[in-house]
Amino acid sequence: MSDLNGLRIADKKHIGLAEMLKGGVIMDVTNAEQAKIAEDAGAVSVMALERVPSDIRRDGGVARMSPVKKIKEIQKAVTIPVMAKARIGHFVEAQILESLAVDYIDESEVLTPADEHFHIDKFAFRIPFVCGCRDLGEALRRIGEGAAMIRTKGEAGSGNIVEAVRHMRAVVSGMRRLTTLSPEELMTEAKNLGAPYELLRWVAKSGKLPVPNFSAGGIATPADAALMMQLGAEAVFVGSGIFKSSDPAQRAKAIVQATTHFKDPDVLARVSEELGDAMVGIETSKLAEKDLLQTRGW
Amino acid sequence: MRVGVLALQGDFGLHAKALEKCGVEAVEVRKPTELDAVDGLVIPGGESTTLLKLIDAWDFVPAIEKFHRAGKPLFGTCAGLIILAREVEGPRQFSLGLIDVTVERNAYGRQRESFEAAGVARLDGVDTRIEMFFIRAPRIRRVGPDVHVLAEHGGEPVMARYGSVLVATFHPELTDSTVIHRYFCDMVGQARIAA
């Protein structure tokens, strides 16, 4: 176990796995065949889920953890780490995923929440968790609960990067602001953010989160991935963006290159050629509040 | 002295930090031509399958082989070891073959089986305490006759050296100690003098 200013956070070996995924692309997959395509394209990890977010959005109904059989098939098909989503607060889905030895649990707003008030106590598990956030306060609450990796939520299944940008900017500017505060201002700031004081003090001093900070929710093109990396993401999750495009393998490869060479416009231009069609996006500002996935959790 | 860190994917940032703590300039390497400007190269932990795709896409293999032939030291941790090994199992995959060891990928199991342990490394004849993080780590299943084992865990080799190539199955860059990075920097310094 590791601690910051006396506050327990996730185990270093779990934060360490997130460190190993940096500069990489984690791809949503629903079966073994897609998982293989993702691995062959250079994904650092795959995320097993029942339906990709855009299908969840279209079909509605309750979205749950991926079927156990599918997760096992995916684990058999690839050698890279396999993550899987559990519903917010559904600690029994998480227990099942622990029993299956998935490498990371995503306690995800993309699935229908199981608990309207409480997230999972992530310290109760031997495998790590990644959680979504929309701002610094939410990121620090999840880290305080034991998340070993944070990702911005964005708006999953939208194919629209605007929400991911908003969330990443909020986290980064929130951290920058903390570094400018004097010590006596930090307790009030902790109250305003609804976040643990000890974590706030740590971030104020170091200017970064104590766990890796990735981006998710709306990445559909190599340029989207590079944009999030330039804004401060350390790796990216791509959901519907790959398997809802016209040529998933080609697009997946291009996004992998773009995530490594995110600062090199010549490479980005080259990998963006001949990609086929991106998924059709949604204007997120026209979505009704009830149709937003990012407002799930707190 | 400038030491490169292969920055295609993985925890290259932590290696760069550790190197800088040792007082050398750390340089992120994303293209083969960038190897010309560095005296040693760290291949970090990450996903070896992803690293291989990116190494292949940018034609890094001949560049690293040339770098090695010039006597410039290489240090591979975890995935970096897998890339440098002679033979890889679980599954079989391409590797550079610059150190005569056989490595089995993810040989302790999945993340649930990842662990940390204290140990001792024999560095320049001195037993040195080290902290080791094994994360979905590989195991060294065979060591060639001329390869020096520098550290063991549970009776198995976890750190080894063959000439200018240093490898570890664990992650010294995740710890606060820089003893192993200092050892590598010394290798780079000595290779420079020899050249």
How would you portray this structure in words?
The complex is a heterodimer of chains A (298) and B (195). With 298 residues, chain A is α/β, with parallel strands linked by helices. Helix content of chain A is 41%, strand content 14%. Chain A has 13 helices and 10 strands. Chain A has helices at residues 12-20, 32-41, 53-59, 68-77, 91-99, 136-144, 162-179, 186-193, 197-206, 222-230, 240-243, 248-260, 265-271; strands spanning 2-4, 7-9, 25-29, 45-48, 82-87, 104-108, 129-133, 149-152, 213-215, 236-238. In chain A, the strands form 2 sheets. In chain A, strands 9-8-7-6-5-4-3-10 form an 8-stranded parallel beta sheet. In chain A, helix 2 runs parallel beside helix 4. The longest helix of chain A has 18 residues, at 162-179. The model of chain A has no long low-confidence stretch (mean pLDDT 95). Chain B is an alpha/beta fold and 195 residues long. Chain B has a single domain (2-194), classed as Class I glutamine amidotransferase (GATase) domain (Rossmann fold, 3-Layer(aba) Sandwich). Chain B is built from 5 helices and 12 strands. Chain B has helices spanning 12-21, 48-57, 60-69, 79-84, 179-194; strands at 2-6, 25-29, 40-43, 74-77, 85-89, 99-104, 115-123, 126-134, 139-143, 148-153, 156-162, 165-168. In chain B, the strands form 3 sheets. A 7-stranded mixed beta sheet of chain B has the order 2-1-3-4-12-11-10. A 3-stranded mixed beta sheet of chain B has the order 5-6-9. In chain B, strand 10 and strand 11 form a beta hairpin. The longest helix of chain B has 16 residues, at 179-194. Chain B is globular. The relative contact order of chain B is 0.18. Chain A binds chain B through residues 12-14, 16-17, 19-24, 39, 41-45, 79-82, 98, 101-104, 126-128, 253, 256-257, 259-261, 264, and chain B through 7-14, 30, 45-47, 49-50, 53-54, 57, 78-79, 90-91, 105-106, 109-116, 133-136, 171, 174.
